[in-house]
Amino acid sequence: MSRSSRHRVLPGFRLTLGYTWFYLGLVVLIPLSSLFLKTFSLSWEAFWSTVTTARALAAYRLSFGASLAAALANVVFGLLVAWVLVRYRFPGRDVLESLVDLPFALPTAVAGLTLTTLFSNKGWYGQHLEALGISVAYTSLGVAVALTFIGLPFVVRAVQPVLEELDADVEEAAATLGASPWQTFRRVLFPALVPALLSGFTLAFARALGEYGSVVFISGNMPLRTEIVPLLIITRLEQYDYEGATAIAIVMLAASFSLLLAVNLLHRWSHRRLEARPGA
Amino acid sequence: MESRARSSARNWAPLALLLSLAGCSRSSGEEDAGRSVTLLNVSYDPTRELYEDLNAAFACHWESAHGQRVSIRQSHGGSGKQARSVIEGLTADVVTLALAYDVDMLHAKAQLLPADWQSRLPHNSAPYTSTVVFVVRKGNPKGIHDWDDLVREGITVITPNPKTSGGARWNYLAAWGQALKGKGGSEARAQAYVEKLYRNVPVLDSGARGATTTFAERGLGDVLLAWENEAYLLTREAGRSEFEVVVPPVSILAEPPVALVDRVVDRKGTRAVAEAYLRYLYSDEGQEIAARHHFRPRSAAVAAKHASGFPQVTRLTLAEVAGDWARAQAAHFADGGVLDRIYAPHAN
């Protein structure tokens, strides 16, 4: 504290902290607390039976499962994309660089429609996959595909700056000391990338959990099989069941918040470990 | 989807105004610019084109009769979602929705209009009607003519989710009604029928236009259950000869209602023009425009003129099939209703 207050640029710790609370309260806490208020009109039993119907449970499984699968896929392939973008100079790199952000910019419904067109049994990808016995559109696999699409930029953009900071000298040093490329990756590069990968993973995962627009088109929306939680919430709203909708939303909110918190703690822990390492 | 719908409504409003002015006599002149009035019509998805035409025609009619310019903004989206927007404060002067149930909620949840709103205009406040028909692929390769064909083994049926789509609820009630009222009909038979029908549904799109896309663009399904006007829109679209409309002998009388939102018009002082707007839907011109958009007109004269466009079909009313919307909702679509039982774990 004392050290940070000597170097402050913005005026007054109290003022800035106050502003932080005010802003977060206005933009995040008040809207979310209204969600809780709405649900409080339900009795505990009603709340519990609403959020534990077979349909709701199946939807949680699908939403969390597909989001997890998509985030993991993005960790692997996002790292590769970031690697290529940072370490190589080639014609068309700028185009590739902008391409990464496209899932951010595209309206999700458009993404959903496009993916469905591609993967339906008449589509460019779909007809060949269908021949192999793999159906993507209207299955839970399709849900994971859509969530992978919207989550890609998070991992790439989280890893990229860290990769840029890592000097190629470190790798050269490792090589001169006799490390194999795999050893270099595993013992030198990967540990430094873990915090960034974790935060990319968290962001992609969190984004996927709440995703609606791109998923409703490609998932078959079949009860118990391909229904995602956000769709279930919409279904409740269509019945003017605001309490039921917010009850399910709160379960998602609580689960997501715990997950984010857990990953953030993990993130901090891995960061500390990294800093404690001699020479890193 | 919704934001797109809304922004397109916004984009169209000036165009509609322009068209209406171009078609009108310019007697009123510039001094009336200050007296122009704006209405907001909150509607559901498949009426976008219908109201573009109706609004232009009404603006013309109102201006020549009262010397006042009126511009009508449109908002489209799922019927239930639109009703919720109005409940939450979207200042709709009038609503033109897919289900009376959604308008009932404007009374139940926000007291925006009186409980007896549906008796304030002729014909249950539904100036035009529609019905549920089948769309099949060119040449009707699976030989689908009647409801019983839909539950045959190996037939796939495309219809949206009744829980999220107003149109899908009419589809469902049409299926239920014909089994209930057909030969040897009973509640049990109707339930068995809809169970078999929904087993043949591979995808439950969240809205009617989504289901149409699934059927038309993705090539999924042998038959699409659709509103008659949507069906004709699909088959008559430029160069579309891939589909055929099959009108079953029995279907449902779909009555999409219109209503004045009293609280809003009284606050804005637009009651007179909003009332005239709704009445205009029943006028010969209004009925003519509805018929051109494949909505069945209430006016016998206009209906006779367009008879060739509307094949004969016995249409069961909602009262015959399910009583009223409150009962239909509770028995079929609410949690634990017939629809949930179809998809209950043991049924799979």
Automatic annotation (TrEMBL), chain A:
Its main location: membrane. It is a multi-pass membrane protein. Coiled coil: none annotated. GO terms for molecular function: ABC-type sulfate transporter activity. The keyword Plastid does not apply. Keywords: Membrane, Sulfate transport, Transmembrane, Transmembrane helix, Transport. Residues 60-263 form the ABC transmembrane type-1 domain. GO terms for cellular component: plasma membrane. It is found in: Cell membrane. The chain crosses the membrane at residues 21-44, 64-86, 98-119, 131-156, 188-209, 245-267. InterPro entries: CysT_permease, MetI-like, MetI-like_sf, Sulph_transpt2. It holds the Pfam family BPD_transp_1. SUPFAM superfamilies: MetI-like (SSF161098). Belongs to the binding-protein-dependent transport system permease family. CysTW subfamily. The complex is composed of two ATP-binding proteins (CysA), two transmembrane proteins (CysT and CysW) and a solute-binding protein (CysP). Part of the ABC transporter complex CysAWTP (TC 3.A.1.6.1) involved in sulfate/thiosulfate import. Probably responsible for the translocation of the substrate across the membrane. Part of the ABC transporter complex (TC 3.A.1.6.1) involved in sulfate/thiosulfate import. This is Sulfate transport system permease protein CysT.
UniProtKB/TrEMBL annotation, chain B:
One of its GO terms (cellular component) is periplasmic space. It comes from the Bacteria. It is found in: Periplasm. GO terms for molecular function: molecular carrier activity; sulfur compound binding. InterPro entries: Sulphate/thiosulphate_BS (IPR034408), Thiosulph/SO4-bd (IPR005669). The keyword Signal applies. Pfam families: SBP_bac_11. CDD domains: PBP2_CysP. Keywords: Periplasm, Signal, Transport. GO terms for biological process: sulfate transmembrane transport. The keyword Nuclease does not apply. Belongs to the prokaryotic sulfate-binding protein family. This is Sulfate and thiosulfate binding protein CysP. It comes from Pseudomyxococcus hansupus. The lineage of its organism: Bacteria, Pseudomonadati, Myxococcota, Myxococcia, Myxococcales.
